[in-house]
Amino acid sequence: MGPFNHILAGFTLGFQWRNELAQILAETSHETSILSINPVELKTEGIAALALDFDGVLAHHGAAAPLPEAIEWMKRCEEVFGGERIFILSNKPTEDRRRWFAENFPSMRFISGVRKKPYPDGLIKSGELAEVLLSSILMVDDRLLTGCLAALVAGARPCYIRQPYISFSHRAFSEMFFWLLRKAERLFVRLTGN
For residue 89, which of 46, 118, 47 has the smallest C-alpha distance? Predict the structure, then answer.
């Protein structure tokens, strides 16, 4: 399998799921960030486990650790779900990040050794490890054609972050690239959906 197959899969699967992606886009507030997500409410809505993207969701691109406000939010999530039901599902699971989580949230697990999102493999593995139905897993991601699409394909629930963490002062080129990529994804979904 080539290193860019997940990108091609994003567009082909994205076209197949275009109406569902358009609905997610239409129903998600422009202010949605992880801080607007209440873990207690999620649990009452039937969510039993969380799969969290890292870049844009917990910190800006390339950061080795989550931002302080993301850490506080993850602590609240851990109180509600237990760390063993919270997974980091990133297409860039760096060793620095693994080490940070091992030291600070040792019961939360990185999902690796699976095909990158939008393939559903990481969510399927999360469901197996948490021993919960895929329909009770919430995938929190700032990208429509990766995490949100993976959730749809797997039968999990997507949560689209419209206010991702961005820091042009830390990594201007990569932040600009992903800012443009998010805009291109939304345009693709608007043009092809419904």
Answer: 118
